[in-house]
Amino acid sequence: MDTIFAPATPPGKSGVAVVRVSGPRAHEVVRALAGDVPEPRRASLRRLRDRSGAVIDEALVLVFAPGGSFTGEPSAEFQLHGSPAVVARMRRVLLEEQGLRLAEPGEFTRRALENERLDIAQVEGLADLIEAETELQRRLALRVFSGEMRQRVESWRERLIRAMALVEAVIDFADEEVPEDVSEEVTALLEDVRAELTREIEGVRAAERLREGFEVAILGRPNAGKSTLLNRLAGREAALTSEIAGTTRDVIEVRIDLDGLPVTFLDTAGLRETDDVVEAMGVRRALERARAADLRIFLQVEDEVFPELRPGDIVVAAKADLRDSREGVSGLTGEGVDRLLDEVKEKLGRIASLPVTATRERHRQAMQAAVAGIDRAVEEVRQGEARLEIAGEELRAVVASLSGLVGYIDVEHVLDEIFSRFCLGK
Ligand SMILES: Nc1nc2c(ncn2[C@@H]2O[C@H](COP(=O)(O)OP(=O)(O)OP(=O)(O)O)[C@@H](O)[C@H]2O)c(=O)[nH]1
Where does the chain bind Mg(2+) (predicted)? Predict the structure, then answer.
């Protein structure tokens, strides 16, 4: 096993730059640079020197014993002064004098997984945590990272195994007339697990939105004031506005942190029949994006109707500043914008508040397969004693598919997907 190292902090100037080292030779490297190996987990100030004795930097050194490190290996962290020159010097010493290898993106985490310090769902949570930009994303990622998936899988497994044991007891003692009717208890256990899985599956879409961001499309006639509203939301001139109808032709996106909800607002071409080929393409694209969006805001100029309107969408009067009633929203003056945002928050927040741990398509598929397997098992049990053996087989497959959610084995393709997005030093 190679001993690897990587800067854990981004390149550039900073107060402190952290360089991590992990692998069998980590402590030996600390001794070579710092003169001794400080007590594990105690921050110790040391003068780091290269082989010639020249000082590299004065740094805090943190040593971790194999059982108590992130990777599960002997490891160490050097907290250097955050200058590009210090980090470059350190890097050269570790590469050339100590013969270490620069870690690949995600390699520390991969080792943590291989040493069973983390399960695969936690690795997914960690990836999301590093990517988290908003408060709700952080909370969701932390829940997954903290190992909640493993707890749930464990509780499903226990009940499934109990059901399997009951089924097998009947099979084993078939000749001895032990079998009282177990089908009721088995079915109850299975229905229980099934209900929880279904709830998780229903939450995946919401969790995915939370991870990747919600889309809210702004729609309406040309000149309704869509671009002006978007710019108001963005706090900058993201979209061109003009008194000429048909100004916006492509979809313009603005990403906003709406009290923890990651929301992308889409400004779209005004909806109208047009002979202009390019504008018509814009209208078509607007409608496509609006269809896929999580929520649509229709800016209403008069009392036109919107065939694209769906339940839950928002219709709001445009250019409130020109109206006697002052109802609606005005991108120009900002009137009604907070009210509109509250409504958006309320609607998206409802989607985002489901208490799920399943956050990815991979989880959904495994759970869906488990539900299908449970359904087949329940059906076999219903068919009577002769079919119990098949029911048992089904349940074994269900357990396997749920174990895969947190499994340590068979995860290569999952890892490649996750680690391709990891940053260096994690
Ligand atoms: N009084 C008033 N004028 C507005 C408001 N919003 C937009 N306008 C004006 O209406 C005109 C059209 O605004 P845009 O924001 O470009 O409208 P749009 O819906 O994006 O138009 P298209 O890109 O053509 O679809 C511009 O002259 C704006 O200054 C508003 O809230 N109040």
Answer: 227, 248
